[in-house]
Design brief:
alpha+beta; 6-stranded antiparallel β-sheet; 13 helices; Jelly Rolls; Potassium Channel Kv1.1, Chain A
Length: about 525
Amino acid sequence: MANEEQPPKNMMTTTDSCKIYEDMSGFYRKEVFSDVNLILCDKTIPAHKIVLAIGCKYFESILIENPKQSEIILEDVPSKAFEAVLLYIYTGSVLVEMSYGDDLFDVIQLARKYSLKSLEDTLYEKTVSIMCPSNICLFLNKSNELQMDELKQICLLFIDSNLSKILGTNLLNVLTQKSMVQLLERDCFPAHETEIFEIAASWCGSNTDVNNLVSGCVKLTKLTIDELFNVVWPSKIIESERLLNALVSIRNNSTNTAHLINKNIAVAAYNAKVISGIKTLKLLEGTENEDEGARHDQNDVNGITLDLGLNRSFNHVKLKMLGIFYSSYYLETSFNQRKWYKLIDYSQYACSYEQNLYFDGVQQARYIRAVFSKLIPLGKFEVSFDSTVPEVHNHIIYPSSNVIYSETKIFMWEGRCDKFPLVLVLDQPYMISYMKVMLRFYKHVERIETSVDYRNWQTVESLTTETPKKSSRRQTFRFKERIVNVIKIMGDISSNKTSSNFKEFLADFRCYYVRNDGK
């Protein structure tokens, strides 16, 4: 009805539409025909035995035991919550303030006490529907207090899914110690150990950590020695003996795993296995056969995923792509398969053959996945901690030696042999600032261009229109550093010089990075 009064926006309602409720609703809190008083701590409410007995088994059992009693004393029952329950008994509707959830859980608790299962289930669903970062900690505390295990698990999953919105705030500081321990002690909690420590440290700064249960959730041995000294130790929330034991354990672990340096740990001997992808049987041992190469469906965001068996340290990943085609891709890592971190993003680059991926620092993860933009067979997936690594910035290698080698793909652009559009495809993007080229069978070279995607090209240097002398066939190009994936050489060649092996056109081609200072 248009003129019917609507509940406030911060209130929620639920209604059980039954004819008997329509008949009873007019007697709610009315003294007409009242035959029993409900005694609360701060008020007395007139009620009707027949309505109480029909609507609530709890009151039915009390009235059957003593049908003549005129008063029912309700001790330690919050008045506001009880009035909401009584309204439900009379009308099938309930009106509960839901801004922060205190009243809501008081009503849930009474619904459980009075065996009002339908009311409890309805309020449970409403609780889930109004979860948000500002109330989720209260809901988790209440679910523990009321031993609502299913709701507790939903609260934990909500925090996991919305952790990015919660980290950096003080919202988690209102959790009880029990709730905080439940949150942090799970192996599936999608946070790096440094983030777990920051959460624990913030909570300990606002609460008393009895028996160090919250700080004890931090797995110190998953942190680096630098993090222990520069982050954990200044906080003073970890006792010195435990901190010292963690340092000793990390040192001993480094000694015990020294034999893994420069070795591929993505093998069955170290309990690694492939857990997603297609035709992955030969991936860890390696194959050169395209038909045996691993791949994944284009819509599968899990791509090809490795489980290293436990959290491993590494600084090098090698992917061996099979076939003549190229693809862009990205790599992600995870500790628990719930939250993934972007490790390498080559989604803008045309990559092929062997990918040697190094990182600015030591990486740690249990799971690594490669997701390709095309259906490219992968012959091998290696992970290692190398004792020496090339210069790397933002996941791009600055090569100090030539990246053109015998396996480099070379072809003629659009088959135009008259203008000599010779194309060299690097396996992966490199930062390049120096080229040295020596060509056979040519009359004139117009220019050299570079690209990362076959679409956008940059000129390296414009050459003279005069035919070079034989003694000057070797050309050197020094230019401002740029990311290079594909190189195209344009020019004229002798009309009688043709070959299906385009590598014959190159007498020598060197391509690498030289600093501006020449070093």
